[in-house]
Amino acid sequence: MAKEGLGLEITELRLGLPGGGTEKNEKKRVFSEISEEEENEKSNGPPELQSKSQVVGWPPVCSYRKKNSFGDKDGSKTSKFYVKVSMDGAPFLRKIDLALHKGYSDLAKALEKLFGEALRDAESCEFVPIYEDKDGDWMLAGDVPWEMFIESCKRLRIMKKADAKGFGVLQSREALNGTLK
Amino acid sequence: MEPSELKRSKDSPNSDESTRRSSFPDEVLERVLSLLKTHRDRSSVSLVCKDWYNAERWSRTHVFIGNCYSVSPEIVARRFPKIRSVTLKGKPRFSDFNLVPENWGADIHAWLVVFAAKYPFLEELRLKRMAISDESLEFLAVSFPNFKALSLLSCDGFSTNGLAAIATHCKNLTELDIQENGIDDKGGSWLSCFPESFTSLEVLNFANLSSDINFDALERLVGRCKSMRVLKLNRSVSLEQLQRLLVNAPQLAELGTGSFSEELTFRQYVELESALSNCKNMHTLSGLWDAKGIYLPALYPVCTHLTFLNLSYAALRSDELAKLLAHCPRLKRLWVLDTVEDKGLEAVGLNCPLLEELRVFPADPFDEEIIHGVTEAGFVAVSFGCPRLHYVLYFCRQMTNAAVATIVQNCPDFTHFRLCIMNPGQPDYITNEPMDEAFGAVVKTCTKLQRLSVSGRLTDLTFEYIGRYAKNLETLSVAFAGSSDWGMQCVMGGCSKLRKLEIRDCPFGNAALLSGLEKYESMRSLWMSACNVTMNGCRLLAREMPRLNVEVMKEDGSDDSQADKVYVYRSIAGPRRDAPPSVLTL
C-alpha cells in the first residue's frame, strides 16, 4: 500500500524553482545543462534530510487518496502506463497515461495540449519525440506498433532536433538505418 | 436554556419526592433535556446534579464516543438505556498514514453484541477508524430490525460481502455511506441485493469502491427511492449512465459523479447538461474522476447553487479550474488537487468571496522529481479574495514566514489551520530561517484557532508561541519539529483546552512526556512516535496515572529501552484486553 522508498537522490533530474517563484517562460535549457545546474543548486533542507528516502507515512496523505490516484482505473495499483514527459525548454515535467490514448496521433495531440505554451514559444525549432525503452535505450517514437510502444516506453522526451546529435538518439538512428537496409 | 429558569417553577403537585432539591417531575425534565442535541451540552447538563444526571441519561438517544477504548460497551449501556444512534471512533489518526500496526484493535464486534442485547431498536451506527468484519456486518444486519443508517469512514476489515448483507436484510435502511475505507472489493453484486420492494434509501455513497456495479439494478434503485438526496457513485459509472440516473433523481442535493471522461456525442452532452440543470436542490458536487475540461461546462447550471465542490479526484489545470469557478459564486467549501497550481488558486480568490474552507491535496506527494503544485503565492492569493476563510488544509513544497503572516492578517478567523510543507524540516525558502514566525503569527492573530498542524523547520520558539497564545487550541499535529523537551512542555503547560496531541519524529523525551502528567486525563489522547521517549518514562507515567492507558508499540529490531510509538489515553474501562502482541500496555 504505502510506496516503498525510492531512494531518489535530490541531485537526480530535478528542476528546482528559483528563489523568486515560478517563471514559466524561463530561458530554455538543454538536457545536459540541467544535470550540471542541479549540482550547483542551493539546498532547501538541512543537510541530514537532503538525500531522504521515503519516510513512512509522510507526507500525511491518506491511503485511499494514494490508491485513487490519477490514471488508476483499478484503484489498487498505479497504472503501469504512466510515464514522465519532459520537454526541452519547458520548466516542468509532466506525467501522461499512455493507456488513455489510442495511438500516436492521439498522443501527439495530448502532448501538444500539455506543452502547448512551450511549443509555441519555441521560436520555430523542430522537436523530436523520443522515448526511453525497457532496455534503457533512447528510441525515436513512432516506429513500432502502438501496443508494443506503450509496453516498452519508460519515459518520454520532446527534444530539440538540433540537440539530437549530442545524445544517444544517434544510436536509434543507426538502428533505424540498419533495419532499412 | 438557563438552569435558573427551570428552577423558578416550583409548583409540581405530581412530585412525590419532597426530599429532592428540584421539584421538577422527571418526565418534564427529561422532555426539556431531550431538546439538547450536542453531546457537549448534554455532558455539561449531566454534571449539574444527580437528578439532572439521571434525567439526561434517560433522555439521551445519541451517544458519541471519541475513543472506543475510553469506555466499555457495558458501561455505556448501563448509563444510557435509550440509545438509538451511536458514533464511535477507534484507531489513532496516524493509522491513516500506516503508522499503526495491523490488527491494532478497535474491533466493533464486542460493541455490537452488547448493543444487540441492550439496544435492539438501534437505528444508526457511524464508525470512524474501526475494524469491522463481514461477520459483524451480517450480525448488524440481522440484529436490529429498525436499523436505518450505516456510515463507515476509514474503517477496514470488511468486504463487499458485508455490504451485501446490509442491503439484503435492512428493510428500513435510509443511509449507506461507505467512505474511504480499506475495503476488500470483491465485485459490485452487493448493490443488486437491495430488494425490489425497498424504497427508503436517502443516502447512498459507494464512491470508494472500484468494482463495476450492476447499472440496471442501480438505476431501478435510484428510480424507486424518491427520497434520495445524496448519491455518490464510483468511478465505474459512466457519464451516459449518470445522465440516466439524474433524469430520475432531480431532487438530489449531493451528487458524486462517476468517471467524467468518456467520449460523448453532442446529443449525449446536451442531455447530460439538461439533466444536471434540472437538479435545482444540488448544493454539493464531487467525484469527477478523470474530468475532461471540455465536459465541465455541463456543470455550469449546477454550479450557481453549489456550496461544496470536491475536485480532489479531478486533476484539473489552472485554466480549467478558473473557467469552472467563474460559475461558482456561492462556494463555501472547495477541495482541489495541486495540479491547479497558484494560478488556479488566484481564480479561487477572484471568484469565491464566500469561501470558508479550502483543501489543496498533492497529486504526486511522493514523487520528488516533479516539482509543480502550489506555493505560498496561491495561498496568499486566496486569502486576499476570501476573508471568511476559516478552514484550510494546504500541501505545498515551499512557504515563507512573510506569506503566512499576510494570510492570517487577511483571514483572522481561522479555526483550522493545517499547513503541510512536504519536505520535512524545510525552512523559509527565501530567508532560510525556521518557520517559527509563521506559526507565531497564526496563533497570535487567530484567537479562535481550534486545530493546528505545523510543518517546516521549527524550533522550540514555535511551541512557546503555541503555548502562550493558542488558548482555544484543541488538536495539535506536529512532525519533524522542535529542538528540545522545552517545546512540548510549553504546549502542555499553556494550551488549556488541548484534547488531542499527535507528535512524530520530534526530539521530545521523557521530561516532555511527563510534563503533561496532570493534563492527560483532561485530554482524549496523546500519540508520540519516533521521539526520544523511553520505556522507563512510559512506565513512570503509567504508574503515576492509573486512569490512563499507556500503550507502547515496539518496532522490530529497535532498542529495548526505546518506546518507539506511544499512545496514551484516558479510560474508565481500564487497560484493554484485546491488544495484539505488538502493543504493550504498561
List the helices and strands and how they pair.
The complex is a heterodimer of chains A (181) and B (586).
Chain A: H1 31-40, H2 63-67, E1 82-87, E2 94-97, H3 104-120, E3 127-132, E4 138-140, H4 146-152, E5 155-160, H5 169-180
Parallel strand pairs in A: 1-5
Antiparallel strand pairs in A: 1-2, 3-4, 3-5
Chain B: H1 3-8, H2 26-33, H3 39-46, H4 50-59, E1 62-65, H5 73-79, E2 85-89, H6 109-118, E3 124-128, H7 134-143, E4 149-153, E5 156-159, H8 160-169, E6 175-179, E7 182-184, E8 203-205, H9 215-224, E9 230-232, H10 239-247, E10 254-256, H11 266-277, E11 284-286, H12 300-303, E12 308-310, H13 318-325, E13 333-337, H14 341-351, E14 357-361, H15 376-385, E15 391-396, H16 401-410, E16 416-421, H17 436-445, E17 451-453, H18 460-469, E18 475-479, H19 485-494, E19 500-504, H20 510-515, E20 525-529, H21 535-544, E21 548-553, E22 565-570, E23 583-585
Parallel strand pairs in B: 1-2, 2-3, 3-4, 4-6, 5-7, 6-8, 8-9, 9-10, 10-11, 11-12, 12-13, 13-14, 14-15, 15-16, 16-17, 17-18, 18-19, 19-20
Antiparallel strand pairs in B: 20-22, 21-22, 21-23
